[in-house]
Amino acid sequence: MRKLKLQVQLTVDGYHSGPNGELNWMNFNWDEKLIDYVNKLTDSCDTILLGRKMTDGFVNYWEGVLKTSESPEYDFARKMVNTPKIVFTKTLEKSPWNNTKIEKGDLKEEVNKLKGLNGKDIIVYGGTSFVAKLIKEGLIDEYHLFINPAVIGNGKTIFGELDKTRSLALKNTIAFKNGIVMNHYEPVK
Q1: pLDDT of amino acid 176
Q2: Looking at the whole model, is its pTM more than 0.85?
Q3: DSSP characters over the chain
């Protein structure tokens, strides 16, 4: 069975963004070791899940990077654009984005169907409310939490919809030179 992997940037105090979606606390000074980790994680997956609110920015950003082959993100952008994406939405009838399918069904049922298909694993990047729903439903199989060296005191959290305690087992921790600490957790079954 395929796994659903979450790759997400968080602050030390556990926020995914500021109260109005601010991301100015993120550390983008990535070294080769961090880039290699993200590439290996991405290469282990052949499907990207996104919430509708995040998709416009995500798709437009990576398609924009592809417009110049001199960008240091060019190779990664090709992966992001070429990897099939599934957008969960209640409002859209068809996808305005290339290489993207709309899914309007029950989140838990549809994600479990995707996990049962042949292929590599599945990765989810966000947004905040979409990831919170996946976590609440117990659908995340691996958490790759990139803790940035910043504290913002207030903001949006991906754990705000939990209605009971969830235990996680730490599988790996890597401290990167830029101060980001990656914690890889898996749910305790």
Answers
A1: 97
A2: yes
A3: -PPEEEEEEEETTS-SB-TT---TT------HHHHHHHHHHHHTEEEEEEEHHHHHHHHHHHHHHTT-TTSTTHHHHHHHHHS-EEEE-SS-SS-SSTTEEEE-S-HHHHHHHHHHSSSSEEEEEE-HHHHHHHHHTT--SEEEEEEES---SS-B-TTTT--S---EEEEEEEE-TTS-EEEEEEE--
| 92 pLDDT above the threshold of 90 | no
Are the beta carbons of 124 and 4 closer than 8 angstroms? yes
Tell which residue, 146, 154, 96, has the closest CA to residue 126.
146
Q: Is the dihedral of CA 81, 85, 89, 95 positive or negative?
A: positive
The Cα 6–Cα 145 span in angstroms is 8
> Using CA atoms, how far apart are residues 180 and 53, in angstroms rounded to an integer?
26
